[in-house]
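Final report, results section. Input specification for complex C-07:
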Amino acid sequence: MRGTLRSRKGQLLLPMLALIFLFGLFLAGFLKWCQAVYWQMRTNMVAEAVALSAGRAQAEMLNSLAILQGLENAFLQKVDLFGADVAHMQVELDKDFETTNQVLRSALRGFNGQTMAVAQAVARANGVKVPAIPSPKPDHHLEPQKVYVLYFAKLIPVWGAVYEKAYFLRKWSPGKACAQPDHEVTWGVKKQGAVGTATARLWLDLTPESVFDNGGFPGKDLPWVRQIGIQCFFPQFNARLVPTSKEKDAALRGLLAGL
Amino acid sequence: MADRLKVQGQTLVEMAVVLPILGLAIAAGIQLIVFCHNMITLQLMAANAVRQISAESPMVPPDSMSHLLWGQTLVVVPKSSRQTIQPWRPFWGKSTVQSPGCLVLVTMQTTLLPGPGFGRFLPLVRQAAAAETLFEPPRPSES
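Structure output:
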């Protein structure tokens, strides 16, 4: 053994080589750790960018929807009569109302798709190959309302009909006038083996002291004054990052680890 | 006999010249690794701090990773600076939230002190890592 380790031409060669080899192994491990830490930081940033971009896309769409819905007041004047929505509309404005309503409904149908498209575009732009995963699924949290419409030719009532999806109520914060949206989505992304998660939440840029604040969209269980017409005041939705819950973080990490 | 003396002589030369050089090279390598490790840890601390700031509050969170630094280091000093971006709010009017958001820059600083042995001859090395984020005003309450 001594003879093999200590050759005549270099007694310490093998121990030195072993030492260098061990140091090399340590260095390789260290570099791997550095790489993992940097990818984790980068992935966290990407997750934040994805969550915030998707949240802002949602906010932008809600703003557009609220404006479109507010425009319907020009064609349809509604009041709440004993719990039922009854509206007046001039016959010649029916087509214009139908067009506005179709645009509103198609924008609503594309809400989730547009949110996903923005999130995936941001993820791809940051070099993520695996699709970004949301939890829960993004949604507009609005529900359609039917209105009994009385059609008038000038002052003469012509006919009446129920319009099924005339406008949309907010599902969040029923009974609260100054409501804040409850849209909160956690996004998970995976890049170079590192998984990052971030959560964005929508908010309405309006102080609770504002008299006309109605949460951006008409709400449920509000006083009758709040139900005159389709009240979509201050469409000023915005989005911001919020802390991610441990449960959602663990669930998304588990899901993305398998991809 | 002469052959044996020659072998012992070679061992002596290797011990006297090569081993110290190798030891010094490895010590220098370890110092470099310590430096790099602490830089990465500081960057991670700064990144975690801004992540918390952007999601929760503008206050710099308490340091919880100092123990991960290698070697003898001074206490990590987090510094933050704020800069209001103009124009900040996308909406304007009487009822909008008036408190402006800001760009928060967090810098984590420490000093790597000389270590024992050969390391005591090394100079003080100041290390700093920075990260920045946008901090938006808190969400208004409901009523």
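Chain B touches chain A through 36 residues (CB under 8 Å). The mean pLDDT of chain B is 81. This concludes the modelling results for the funded period.
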